[in-house]
Structures are given as structure tokens and as C-alpha cells.
Amino acid sequence: MLAEALLGLGSAGSDPLDAGLALHLGRAQRDLGHEVRALALLDAAAEWDPDWLTLSALRSALQARGQDMRAVARLKALLAVAPRDAQLELAELYVDLGLRTLALDALRRGKSGARRRWRLWWATGGPLWFVRAALRGQETAELEDRLGGGEVAAGAVTLLLRDVLADADRDRAAWLLAEQASRLRLDDDAAAPAAARLLADGISSTGPHPLVLREAVGVAAALGDTRLALRILLLLDPATSGLPVRHAGLLTELGRLMDAWTRLQNGAAGNEFREARAELLVDVGLSYLAVDARGDTSSWRRNWRRLWWRTGGPLWFVRSRGRRRDQENLADRLGSSHGAIEEIAPAALAGALTRAAEVHEALTKADQQRRGPAVATLTAANDPDRPSVPLLEQLAWALYLNNQEEEALRRIRDARALEPAKASLFDIEVMTLSFLDRDFEGVRACDRHAASFGRPQNARATHGYLLNGLGFSALSWDAFGPADLRGWSPRSRRRQWWRIGWPLGWLHKRLRDSDQFTLEFWKDRCEDLGIVLGSVVGPERLDELRVAPDRAVLHELRCRLRWGRANVVARLTAGYAGIVVGGFVVARLASDLGPLWSSVVGVGAAAIILGALRGVYRFTRAEPGSRVLTRVLPAILAVAAAGYAVTRIDGRWPLLVGVTVVSVAAVAMLRLVTASAVRVGEALKVRRIQRADPRGYALISLLDMLSELRRPVFRNELGWRRQWSQTLEQVAARMEIDLPLFFAHDPGSADLLRHRGRRAAAALRELKYLVVAAPPGAWRRVETVLRDDIAALATGSLGRLHATDPPAPETHRRSRRQIAVDALRMLFFAGLPLGVVLAAQPWLRFNETILNWARLLTIGWAVLYVLITVDPTFRDKLRTGFALINLGRGAGDPAQLEPSGTEKRSPNAK
């Protein structure tokens, strides 16, 4: 009717009513999805009658399409025709673009808007005119550089009106269809499938229409099929109002962060675009750049203020440094750009909407079921020819909850093949891998996702939880990233923050470096072991069979990492405490010099001790291979003797110098003893871990040996042969002792398993001769046995281990020298307690009663030790005697009441 009225009133624009008709017709065309046609009509209405209503509609339409520069130019051109209305709209446009100084300048041209002008005056610096001048220059540069122009509307008004009349019937049908579908979707969420089917029928009969396509995007999003919504959206004009932000939001849901950022970087600087950019930057943890995005108006104002305070508040230099750091990390946080999603063919649109409705109904039905029925429902709805990402994701969850983790992993990987960047799919995959103890695959998946798809909040939280479970707290905190996280992640991040020593930045850096070194070493170690294991069991079974060696390597490395840190703390504490004590002792010896000079002497002695220790720092760490007993310890004793010799010289200063030298030796010895004690504790703990997991330790050792054995140059080296012989003996000991003990819960099973363990150990010990002597065919025989044993240990088929009867024990004749040495050792340990008591009597000064009791106990110990050493069956006799005594008391046999080694190591042992 409006188009007919404009065509029937003569030449368009000649009547005063034409501007109002064109304004209403432009709004109607915009509502129908014909935005280019609507812009031309609104532009004509503004040319005919530039009042406030027309200019506001034109500004809103241009801004919604991202044509900010064209809106600025059009309003500036109309300032001469309608100065009051144009300057108000221009100021409103500048405010929405975040250019407050230019908005203030625009308002100064007219007399209206005094209150708005006053607020802008204070917001741009108030009486500080130089601040306003600096902001004006910055905003002018932004106006020229950042804002985009967009396309220019063209076409005669008469031709546009005839196009309106030609599309009237089609627009009417599309409007009714979209209105009905929208009412169904908004009134009831469960009616989204009905709305999808309604749109599918309408598209099949009338074809795609911009209004129907926009409603189809909303329906697909309501059905949970983001990929389908994105493919439908690509059929629309890219500059449609609200489409760039909606497009970026859908890309963000699919994890395509770089593509979303590129879509938002189209030059538009309106409030909607700035909010979308800021939300994307906050999602990837770039808070400083998010503040600069200036999303500080409308609904985002509270978030902007919170980020402003978190990024330094009024401390502009803090924000400047953080801005540079975020700019450097922008590409890494957003990931790489991926191939564009192809738009859906209009002919296939109806079928895709119908399929999405069927999938949504199946998902709704499965939500009301549990485990098995839900899996059956989702499996029946799955069509390999028409895969659906939401269906595969929900099916993976159902399989995971139904204890079908391997099948769930396959389904989730099928979904990730369609959408590899989606964060929820990545979360399910990592969680399933972690449940299956396939930590190496989980870490590798996290690394690939971070390198290719950026670091959104959900992916950062998943990575942080995985590293925390592996025991790398510093790396876990780094993976969580900034504090803008959801759910329980902020609490976990705060816990890691305290655990890694913040706000002590230097401590966090050291912990992070040690964690990173251990993690990279573990990944390299697992990669090497996986290559050898894959050559034995086949690459198709590698992922499921590599769990045992990977876990064993991780436990051992994590133990060494913790004890290494304990070694550093204990060594430094002992060293600095010794320095303080040494300086205090020297100061006390120089007390006759007066308080001041004695303090100076003590501080100087402490400084000398510290400098000397820093020179020999690496020799007092008790590291393997540092020759502590042959070099370090004799050198320390020699320094102590030299210092003691200096103290024998008459005079005060030789005494002070000698005590200082002795203090250097004493503190070095203290550090060495402390480090050695921690090293011993580390070795015992590592040995305990290896004995607790004999299968993993045996796998690692045999895989390493097989890898080294394949190098011909190593076979000819006697050093490598000696190492392989030691490895075989250690693995044989684990199989003979620890592996049977792991399963022995009753005496009968224990005897049977010990016999089988001895036979498997004997088969490994037979290889020692082949390794050392290397007769013809020996290396092939050794490699065959190693491959078979590795396959048996990896698959858990322990019955397939090579086994042979152990040789009968032989009687060895001992030489007289050996008998004498054994006798002297027996007499030494038998009389050691008595010798200690008698030697300590002059200092401890026991009374006669205590001394008699001590002599009695030590003599009894000597007699008991001699009897046990001379007669190996004496222990059995003692146990038999105790059993008879307890039997008489009714207490039973203590040998039957004593828990086994496995029970002592069980989780309920406490």
C-alpha cells in the first residue's frame, strides 16, 4: 500500500507526505529482510525531509549494518539542511562509537542538549583541557583508521518501489511463515522441532526468503545444532543487521576463535561490535585488550569497570605493559584460522531442518532415560550418512555414563572430525582419556588444541585440571590463565596460586621451569617407549596398551621431582643455618674486641663461609656420579684439618682464621650430609614405587633394553652389556618377588605364584649369559624373548611369559679368609651395643643400676645375634616356641595372624 501510494502521488519526493511514506516503507522493508532496499528508501526520506525521526532511523539502519563511516558522512552532509536534528544524531552516533570528545564538539554547535553536553564535558577531562585535546586527536585518528564505510546504496526510487510491489506476495507468505515459527519457538522450547518442520515445509513450497532464513538460524540454534545454524546464516547477506555479531557468536561456540575475531574486525565500532570483541577477548584471557575494546556502555558497563580495576585501575603504566603482553599473545590465544564452513544448498535446507528436529526429539527422549535405554535411543537415531554433532556428543556422554568408555571415545572423535575446535567435545575427550589413565594422549590432545584452536575458558579449565591431576601445580596455574573463569575453576586456580608460592614470582618461575622440564621429559620418554611398544604389539593396539609404562614413568619422575625440590630446600636451609651458626661462633670468640668489632668479625666470617660455599656449591649436592666418598669427603676433611692446624698457632687472629676455615668445612659437610640423606630417601621412595608397580617397572626396563639392543654399535660395547645384565637381574628380581606378592592373598596362591615367578625370573637370568658371551644367534634369541615378555606384560597375559626351571642351588666352599671375615663381622655387630654403652659411660655417667641393666641387655643381644647367625633355623625355633606359648594362652599362631606384605600396602591398611 505504501509503495502504491508513493507511485500514485506523482513524482516521488514532490509531495510533503512522501518522506513519511518512504520512512515507513523503509522500516517495513528492513523488517522483511530487504535491508539494501530499505537503506535507499530511508536515505531518500532523509533527503526529502531531514527531521529527527528520519535521521534517527537512517543512523540506526546504517550502524546496524556496520557502515559507521557512511553514517558519519551522511549526518555531516545534512548539518547545513537540519543543523539541530543532525547535530543531535551525530553526537549520539559519536557516543555510541565511544568517541566522546567528538560528540562534545558536535553538541557545541547547537543550543540543545545542555545536560548531555555537561556529562560529556566531565567524562572527557572536565577543566583539564589538555586531556580533552589529547583525546580529540586520538579519536580523530580512530575515526579515520578503524571505521568502515560499507557499500553505497544505489538505484532509483521508482525502480525500488516496483520491486517492492513485485515481491509483495512472496514477502507476505514469508512474513506469515516466520511469524508462526517464531511464535512456536518463543512460546515453548519443546516446540522447536515443530517450528523446524513448519519452516521446512514452507521452504519446500516457496523457496528461501531472507526473513525465513533468519528465523531458520534461530530455530537451528534452539535445536542445539550450531553448525547447521552457521551454514544457514551463510546464505544471508553478510552485512545484514546483527548478522556479523551473530556469526561471530556461532563461530565462538564452535571454537573457531580466529575466524570469529576476523569476522568482528570489519571496521565497525558500534556498541554491539565493541561488546562482542570484548567478550571474545575475555573468553581467551586477554583482559587488557578487552578493556581497550571499550565495551563500557549499556549492559557491559559493569563488566568493563570490573576489568578496568583488575587491569590496574588508574595505574595506566600497568595497563600499558599488560596491553603489550596481550598483543603479543593474541595470535596464540585465538589459534589459527580454519577452512570456511560451506553454506548449505537451498535444496537441502528443508531436509537439514527436518533432520535437526528428529535429532532434538531423540535427545529430549534420551534425557528422560538412564544409561542403557538412553544409549539405545541415541544409537537408533544416529545415521552415519547424516552425522549430527549434538547427537554424537550426547551419545558419547551416555556411553561414558554406561561404562562404555572406549566406545564413547570413538563417538566423540567422530564428532571432533566434524567440529575439531568445539570446546565441549574437547572436554569430553580429555575427561574420558583421563578416566582411562591415558594421560599421555590427554596431554597431547591439550597441546594440539591449544596450538590449533586457541585457549577459550573451557579448554583452559580442562587443561588446568588435567595438569593438576598429573601433579604439575605450576603448569596447572599457567594453563588456567587469568581469573575470568566459570564454575569451580576460579577456586581451583586460587588453590594453585597459593601452592606455587605466589606472590613470590621467583619461586613460581623456578617451580614452573622444573615442572615444564619434567613434563617435556615425560612426554619424550613416553614417545620413545611408545615407538618400541608399537613395534611389538602393533600400532593399532598401542594407545590402549601404553598406559602401564606411561603411568610408571610418570610416578617415578613425579617422585624424583618432589624429592629434588625437598633436596634443594633442605640443602639451602642447612647451609644458611650453618653459616649463621659459624658467624655467631666466630663473633663469640672475638668478643674481647667489643660488641661492634666482634659483630663485624662475625659478619665477615659468615660472608667468607658463604663465598666459599658458593664456590663448591655443585660438589655438595650429593648427586650420582659426583664421587662423594672418594673426592668430596676427603677434600672436606683435609680443609677441616688445615683449619684445625691454624687454630694451634698462638694468637687471636690465627684462632679466628682457623675457626672460620673449620666452619667452612663443617657447613659443607652439613650440606653434604643433608643432601645425602635426602638422596637416600629419594632412592628408597623410588624403589618402593618400583616394587609397588612391578609390571610397569619391568615393561620400562625391557622396552629400554630392546631399544638399545637394536643398535649394533651398542652390542659390541662391554659397558652396555654390563648394564643390560644388571637390567635383566633387576627385572628378574621384580618378577620373582614383587609380582607374585602383588596377587598373593592366601598361602596357596602365594606358593603357586612364587613358583611361577621363579620360573619366569630364571628364564630372564638365562639371557644374562647370552648377553655377556654373545654366542652365534644370541642376539636374535634375546630379542625374541624380550619381545614375547613385553607383549605378555603389556597385554596382561602373564601366563605367556617365558619360563624355565631355576637351577638347583649349589653348595659353595668358603675360603678361610671369607670365614674369618664373616666371623669378625659377626663379633663386631654382636659387641657393638656393649661397646657403645661402655664408651658413652664417661660422658653420660649412668648410675650403677642403669649400667647393670644396659650391660645385661647388650650381652643378651650379643648372645641372640650369635645364635641367629650361626644357626639359620634358630628363627624358626623361636617362632615355634612362641606359637606353643600363645597356643597355651588361646591366642593362636602369630604366624597366621601376621598380615601379608600385600595387606600392609593395601589402601585400608590404616
Automatic annotation (TrEMBL):
Key words, A-Z: Membrane, Transmembrane, Transmembrane helix
Taxonomic lineage of the native organism: Bacteria, Bacillati, Actinomycetota, Actinomycetes, Micromonosporales
Residues that span the membrane, as ranges: 465-485, 568-590, 596-616, 628-647, 653-678, 823-844, 850-870
InterPro entries membership: TPR-like_helical_dom_sf (IPR011990)
Organism of provenance: Asanoa hainanensis
Protein name: Tetratricopeptide repeat-containing protein
Transmembrane helix keyword on record: yes
